[in-house]
Amino acid sequence: MQLLLNGMRGPVDGKTYTDMMPSMAANDDKWIASVLSYVRNSSELGNKSSVVTPEEVAYTRANTPVIPAGMTQQELEIFKLGRAERTNWSKPDDKDKSHK
């Protein structure tokens, strides 16, 4: 999602491109969710993943800084790590509440 919201610049997996991928942030959350869901579930591309909802896009948009020049692959990896930590780890207080 961050990739579509900010675009991308710089080398990707060691390959340098002459232009950057532009941001798609001007599109609404429903449009971005639809594009991501299509790519994630396209049998033509060999993909089978969960559908992205407009609410997920809205949440990501609200929690992603705007990077006008586009994200680098390194920045994208850092954001991916942060998402995984928020998804897989809960606060100690949350664990205590679930046991009561």
Quickly describe the structure.
The chain has 100 residues and is mostly helical. The chain contains five helices and no strands. It is globular.
Structure description:
The protein is 50% helix and 0% strand. It is built from 5 helices and no strands. The radius of gyration is 16 Å and the shape is globular. It has 100 residues and is mainly alpha-helical. The protein starts with a helix and ends with a helix. The longest helix is centred in the C-terminal third of the chain and has 16 residues, at 73-88. 9% of the residues are buried.
Percent of sequence in beta strands: under 5%
Major sheet attributes: none
Based on helices, strands and strand pairing, what is the structural class? mainly alpha
From the alpha-carbon coordinates, what is the Rg to the nearest angstrom? 16 Å
Element order, helices and strands? HHHHH
Question: What distance separates the N and C termini?
Answer: 36 Å
Overall form? globular
Q: Output mean pLDDT.
A: 82
How many helical stretches? 5
User: How much helicity do the residues have?
Assistant: 40-55%
Number of DSSP strand runs = 0
Low-confidence stretches: 94-100
